[in-house]
Amino acid sequence: MKGILRYLAGIEGPNGFGSRSTAEQVTQDCVFPYSHLTAIITGGTSGIGAETARVLAKRGVRVVMAVRDMKKAEMVKEKIVIENPEADIVVLEIDLSSLSSVARFCSQFLSQDLPLNIIINNAGVFSPNLEFSEEKIELTFATNFLGHYLLTEMLIEKMIDTAKKSGIEGRIINLTSVIHSWVKPDCFSFPKLLHPIKYNGTTAYAQSKLATILHAKALSRRLQDRDANVTINAVHPGIVKTGIIRAHKGLLTDSLFLIASKLLKSVSQGAATTCYVALSNETRRISGKYFADCNETNCSDLANDESLALQLCTNGHTLIHDYLHLSRPNLCLL
């Protein structure tokens, strides 16, 4: 309720930005040296991802679009280049629900010998019905958490190396959702996340978004222990009129959806917090935190559970390690 009231009132946070700020506005006066950066953005073919790619490219960042639909990605790239002819856009294929596809993407990216300053784990799915990935893992969890977890694990050493050589802080942004707070402790069990007994699409989505915050918490601690010049934070973009919201419409009455529509952010407002955390000098050395409306805020108690975060990432690492070493024995997972 507080978030809705803040949005309607247009209340700004301590940094002068708020729910109605746009991605261009929050990056307009950034002093972060983004003109020599390379960023990977997953799911950049529509909505928040496409706007994030556009704004980062406008600010001079080389953007690597990690996408499932190459045709749509090329159309987005074309629009960005028309607006900004100097934009540097690379398009690479990935299916985040497939561990083998994620591994191929990472190998392909690393073979290009590009620096890596920013990873934006943006892509997400909402599945109203129970579906499974090619590895027989529940699709929402496989895409929203496991795929991004593997991508980050396989590229983290590249980020650490880039930050060390350039002296520029590396940044990882995990997109999450405020509905992570709906998850109760007794409903968050790793085996059941992989293979639910009773499936509910909204519950599965909320669980996957809780997992993305826990991932940020656990990896932040690892990076700090290594004294690495890389941060990771979780970002709630707000309720934005995207494909995922349209997928939820079937769960709402038409009248409720009409009311909710009036409270939705524009895509540019939805991309603002991601772009702010990625590029602002004000977020320097901030790691393991949760942002909404371009300001640091509080997540749920469960999302702050360090032991749960460690347990989740340990289980995720074991699962991915076992699968990839069975299917690709020569692959090294750090």
Key structural traits:
alpha/beta, 334 residues, 8-stranded mixed β-sheet, 8 strands
Biggest sheet statistics: 8 strands, mixed
Question: Structural class of the secondary structure composition?
Answer: alpha/beta
Give the overall average pLDDT.
90
**Radius of gyration of CA atoms, rounded to a whole number:** 19 Å
Number of helices: 13
What's the number of extended β-strand segments? 8
Poorly predicted parts:
none
Keywords: Chloroplast, Oxidoreductase, Plastid
Pfam family, one: adh_short
Subcellular location: Plastid, Chloroplast
Organism: Brassica carinata (Ethiopian mustard)
Mind sketching the topology for me?
Elements: H1 2-9, H2 23-27, E1 38-42, H3 47-58, E2 62-67, H4 70-83, E3 89-93, H5 99-111, E4 118-121, H6 139-166, E5 170-175, H7 190-194, H8 201-225, E6 230-236, H9 243-248, H10 254-263, H11 267-270, H12 272-279, E7 290-292, E8 295-297, H13 306-327
Protein name: Short-chain dehydrogenase TIC 32, chloroplastic-like
Subcellular location: Plastid, Chloroplast
Pfam family, one: adh_short
Task: Explain what this protein looks like in three dimensions.
The chain has 334 residues and is of the alpha/beta class. The chain is 48% helix and 12% strand. It has helices at 2-9, 23-27, 47-58, 70-83, 99-111, 139-166, 190-194, 201-225, 243-248, 254-263, 267-270, 272-279, 306-327, and strands spanning 38-42, 62-67, 89-93, 118-121, 170-175, 230-236, 290-292, 295-297. An 8-stranded mixed β-sheet has the order 3-2-1-4-5-6-7-8, with helices on both faces. Helix 3 (47-58) runs parallel beside helix 4. The longest helix is centred in the middle third of the chain and has 28 residues, at 139-166. It is globular.
